[in-house]
User: Fold this.
Amino acid sequence: MISKKMAESLNAHMNLELFSANMYLVMSSCCNEMGLKGAANWFFVQYREEMIHFMKFYTYLTDQGVVVSIPASKAVPNKYKSLLEIMQKTLTHEQLITSCMNNLSEQAVQEKDHATQIFLQWFVTEQIEEENNDRDLIAKLKLVGDNGQGILMIDGEMAQRIFVPPVGSPLAV
Ligand code: FEO
Assistant:
């Protein structure tokens, strides 16, 4: 049993995870159009991870007897000048998610909602990895600047990313 207020906050965040998935799917498409198949792969994997995050929230809420709501989603951007810009937008977005996760955790602590605190722990840890991955790629992209060969090397590295569903994940799409 979770409070109505907690359910609303978690439902709002669930929709933000869905927005994240959509945003990364479009970024994958943009990278593909730039000729960067490796980066397209990286963002497609990211999309799949976000769908897992979305489903984790969905499953937690429904397991708690909450009927979720999904409002019409807002359009996601689909115009970027470079892979560096895409990665910078990605980091900014993940920093927003981290901040939301901290707010949710704080609310769960204030409500003495131990189940939700435990549920959120996985996401709090996950955000460290997400931001770190983005910072790493931004640093490399800044190093190579406009050098096409350098960008293609990073693209090759991004091609290596594979989707690994977390243990016990509710959905492996
Ligand atoms: Fe679901 Fe990228 O945080």
About this structure: The CA atoms of residues 55 and 170 lie 6 Å apart. The domain at 4-159 is CATH 1.20.1260.10 (Ferritin). The chain has a mean pLDDT of 96. The radius of gyration is 17 Å.
